[in-house]
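<instruction>
Derive structure tokens from the sequence
<data>
Labelled lines for chain and fold:
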Amino acid sequence: MIRYVPFLKAKRGELNAMGELAPEVKQAICPFFDFPRRDPDYNADTYAAASRSIARSLKKHWGADAEFYFDDLDISQKLSVKGEHQYAYLLKTLDTFRVIPVVALDRISHNAAVASLKSNGEVPSPTVAFRAEHRDFEDFDGNADQIDYDLATVFEEFEAIDLILDCRVCTSMDVLETAQQVARFAKKFCDAYDKVRRVIVTGSSIPRSLGEVVDSSTTKVLARHELAILARARGLTSITLVGADYATVSPFYSDADFEPELFPRVTSPRLIYSFDGSHYISRGSSLASRGYGQYAGLLKQLCGQAFFRPGYSAGENYFYAKSMGIGSRAMNNTVVKPSVVAHITYMVLGASF
């Protein structure tokens, strides 16, 4: 049974992490991948190349036997790739996988591409996911006509609907009010559409820039707002709500195209580790001032915390080894995979949510 949905960027570290999960963890999740945001944005050629690269990584690290969601919400919706709508091209690139397509409000050409592919037998999934952001699920009655107008044709093509209530970064949201909105919308949507298979509630407490919450060379414990919203919402409805989050990467993360000489000046080491409804976040100084050697100290500090889970997953094993100076040093791009593995493993096997 799926009990947790990690929302991940379809980048190397996150995709590689799928291959490091223990079998019992992998069986308990249905990952949701977002096409990674990029600055500057994609053109047709770079989108196509990225789609093919993602497909290769999914084949290697996730496989073709288990379901996953895939969306490209975070990038421009105006591309034509090899004569097709960009999302149609993406879904065709992933046609050997058990990919669940994602639709949403105000994405007319995107939704039409999904309906057309399904009608033509080019989408094998019997399920489609409706991703509703906070502005969409604040008021079901106020959005009911638009949901029907934008999505009825898509829903008719599929046997089942997975409803996703996406709070994105939710730290500024009132917990009780948002939970009430989640519960009301889930109930009314399920009453209106009798083929809802799964209702997922997701969000994050990690902002676009960690500097918004944690200063350089500082450590902080940050309460996870998304878990509080989920817990409250579960108490307000009899509908089963599947827990989800954005793991250890902000929903608004993007790959910035820095000149190589600028990267050390604008980047610093960072760690995010989850425990007890909180994120432990530590940041170093800029790489230009103190270099990657800072990671050994940050990891030694993390591994010395009472809440650290030694041997819990491949992620913890990596952190401990690097804290002891074993092997090559940790770097910004190498800590992503173990961070995601540690987080997902904890959410499946250890977290109470």
Summary: The chain has one domain: 4-215+222-263. The chain is about 40% helix and 20% strand. Residues 4-215+222-263 form a domain with the TIM Barrel fold (CATH 3.20.20). The radius of gyration is 20 Å.
